[in-house]
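Lab notebook, bench 4. Still working through the backlog of constructs that have no structural model yet. Next entry is a single chain of 187 residues. Request: give me the structure tokens for it.
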Amino acid sequence: MVEKHVVVICAAVGALALAAAVLGIIGEATKSRSFVRYDGVNCVYRRTPAFDCGIAAAASLLTGQAILTAATGCWDGCRQRRSSSDHGRVGGYFASILSWFLTILSTCAFLAGALRNDSAERRPKEGVASYYQCTVLVAGVFAGASFLSIAAAAVGIASYVATEGAASTVVSPSAELRVVLGQPQQL
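Model written out:
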């Protein structure tokens, strides 16, 4: 049976990742109208809703990852540790590192997309085959970040569940002492 706090944390992290993914899809849909005009020297861009969506999605994803890391650290640190050859725990730590890597990639993509949708004046890019050589954000930045955010949350939740499962199988020292002292526990 899964402990209640594991279900609550997994649901919270899943909801935050889903929120990040939805915000990313909304950002992808609203980014297309950032270029306004060319004033003869600079390309003038206006802020789109994609800016706010990108910032909120990055914050949501980082919050979920921080919750997972804090929960794993707290409940794992409060328990007796098994030998370092425990495969479930090692796999959980590897998955946690992979989850953080995916989170960082996704956050960078969300923030890059957000910054390209902020109001600004930018110099035209040389060698760009576009109108006045003014660039716009390519399609798929927010969508890719949304996919990575779901993947990061899934790997992070799997890591948390694996670490919790490995930690819950630890036998307490008092149970071992009772058996050694001739006082077996009743199951």
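Notes after review: The chain has five helices and three strands. The longest strand covers residues 35-38. Flag for follow-up if needed.
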